[in-house]
Amino acid sequence: MTKNNQIKKQDLVVTRIIDAQVELVWKAWTDPEYVMRWWGPQYYTSPTCKIDLREGGKYVFCMRAPKDQGGQDMYTAGVYKKIVPMERLEFTQGMADNLHSVPFHFLITNYSSSLIYSKYSHQIPPISKFSSDFYPVL
Predict the structure, then answer these.
(1) Whole-model pTM?
(2) What is the 3-state composition of the chain as percent helix, strand, coil, each rounded to the nearest 5?
(3) Does residue 38 fall inside a structural domain?
């Protein structure tokens, strides 16, 4: 705790190197047909994806829970901040029904791709829960 009993916020940086061609990783994040193939945790589907791929453009990704988990649709939305094709895709991201937006940075470099999450100021779930639900996504 800091003065005035406020919790100090810290950045969380997660990096994962992806062994894939840059063009394919770029499409996985910028082409709605590709996004819908992988968006969401294991056993979820992604029935819709809208992308306005330009700086200042918005996107909305939908993921649908399996029927045994309620089958509800959940939305993630954000705004593209910086786009350098095949090199850098920087965007905000947050739940569409929540006004808080969490900045994420996605970087693609020559045949090596890394996904960097930063400035995440919420409580982080236990790593075992995070890993089991979202490892296939990361």
Answers:
(1) 0.66
(2) 20, 35, 40
(3) yes
